[in-house]
UniProtKB/TrEMBL annotation:
GO biological process: autophagosome assembly; regulation of autophagy
Record SUPFAM superfamilies: Protein kinase-like (PK-like)
Organism: Ichthyophthirius multifiliis (White spot disease agent)
Record domain Protein kinase: where: 1-117
Transmembrane segments: none
Protein name per Swiss-Prot or TrEMBL: Protein kinase domain protein
Enzyme Commission code: 2.7.10.1
Entry's Gene Ontology molecular function annotations: ATP binding; protein serine/threonine kinase activity; transmembrane receptor protein tyrosine kinase activity
UniProt keyword annotations, A-Z: ATP-binding, Kinase, Nucleotide-binding, Transferase
InterPro entries (alphabetical): Atg1-like, Kinase-like_dom_sf, Prot_kinase_dom, Ser/Thr_kinase_AS
Lineage: Eukaryota, Sar, Alveolata, Ciliophora, Intramacronucleata
Length: 117
């Protein structure tokens, strides 16, 4: 992610299917929606691309967005890795997902320690 950011590339479709692991090395795949940007610039993007469940709310809302949109996607992926599901499962469309993002807080359940440790 750091390499992409410092190179001025927004992936715009980060999701588990686009993260490959080989011998403990993580690689990002499928740069079909990637865009070159100047991360120091105030210029924002407006095109709506990506996989809705992992899209930044600004993209879902059809509002201008910048380089931070990939961080949102990465956060959703990390949540899914920790809890085995996305934060808002069962959304049938983008509108319902957007409503849930703004009205239903993300729940971070604690992991119970093994009592034998």
């Amino acid at each position: 992610m750091k390499e992409l950011y410092t190179s001025g590339i927004i992936h715009r479709d980060l999701k588990p299917a686009n993260i490959l692991i080989n011998d403990g090395v993580f690689k990002i795949a499928d740069f079909g929606f990637a865009k070159d940007v100047d991360y120091k610039s105030d210029k924002l993007l407006v095109s709506c691309v990506g996989s809705p469940m992992y899209m930044d709310p600004l993209i879902l809302s059809r509002k201008p967005y910048g380089t931070k949109c990939d961080m949102w996607s990465l956060g959703i992926i990390l949540y899914e890795l920790l809890y085995g599901e996305v934060p808002w499962p069962g959304c049938r469309n983008e509108q319902q997902l957007l409503i849930n993002i703004f009205t239903k807080p993300i729940v971070f359940n604690t992991v119970k320690k093994n009592e034998n440790q």
